[in-house]
Design a protein that fits this description.
Layout: H1 2-16, H2 21-53, H3 67-94, H4 97-129, H5 137-158, H6 162-176, H7 179-189, H8 209-241, H9 246-255
Helix pairs in contact: 2-8, 3-4, 3-5, 3-6, 3-8, 4-5, 4-8, 5-6, 5-7
């Protein structure tokens, strides 16, 4: 029993060593090609199933295929915000440098996903609702999410002191978390034009199996893409913030 506990403790210690920017930087460099490869694999498979295998919708026709981009982007916009707020909160509580860097790296990716969700939603809404935009509860709360991302980015950029910028951004991120359940449950809480969830953890999917596979493959593609870009961004942020450290200076000397 004692040996088992020692092994578990050593594994935890080994994982904790990657909480330092100097050790996380090379690890991220090794993971980036893997996640880019997974992005391409899931993306190719997802696009093939979504646009060439999945049947035409009986009501919405070919126009429904925009959901294979719209829904994964919407999912990721909410998920990334929760992860960003978690990293920001950890940085605020434990004053860990890498946590704040991770939050900063994720913000533009989440903003892009929120923008893509709104943009594709408008393209879907025009033929289905007859308008590009309505002040629907879900659309409005998703727009607020985009503003929260942009506010986080702008707030950090406006404060010269890095530590103060991280703390201010973390507070904004944590306060903004309240918007996530509003987005998710808006179609249940209010009478909105936006259709309900087609995929649920508690109910059978309200779509053909090939449609579901296409959506899940595209969701995995977006997920892998977000991780790959996030790791690339955090490596750039690490180099910028740790430029004064010996290990970064040595790294730059080696790269010359």
């Amino acid at each position: 029993m004692s040996q088992t506990n020692n092994v578990s403790t050593n594994r935890i210690v080994n994982w904790f060593r990657f909480s330092s920017p100097s050790t996380f930087y090379p690890l991220a460099g090794k993971l980036i090609p893997i996640f880019w490869a997974l992005t391409l694999i899931f993306g190719a498979a997802g696009l093939w199933v979504s646009f060439f295998v999945a049947p035409v919708d009986a009501v919405q026709g070919q126009g429904y295929r925009i959901i294979f981009v719209h829904v994964p982007a919407s999912w990721m916009s909410m998920f990334i915000y929760l992860i960003m707020a978690t990293w920001a909160g950890l940085g605020l509580i434990f004053n860990t440098r890498l946590s704040a860097m991770m939050a900063q790296a994720l913000a533009p990716i989440g903003a892009w996903m929120a923008f893509l969700s709104l943009w594709t939603g408008a393209f879907w809404g025009k033929p289905m609702w007859g308008t590009w935009w309505v002040w629907d509860a879900r659309l409005t709360s998703e727009l607020i999410l985009l503003f929260l991302y942009l506010g986080f980015i702008a707030l950090q950029a406006s404060i010269d002191n890095v530590r103060r910028a991280d703390k201010a951004g973390a507070i904004l991120a944590l306060v903004g978390v309240v918007n996530i359940p509003i987005i998710y449950f808006s179609v249940k809480w209010w009478n909105t034009l936006h259709q309900g969830a087609s995929v649920s953890l508690t109910k059978a999917p309200a779509m053909a199996q090939t449609m579901l596979w296409g959506m899940l493959l595209m969701a995995l593609c977006f997920w892998m893409y977000s991780i790959a870009v996030g790791l690339m961004r955090v490596r750039a942020i690490i180099l910028e913030r740790e430029a004064h450290t010996d290990w970064v200076k040595q790294l730059k000397e080696v790269q010359k």
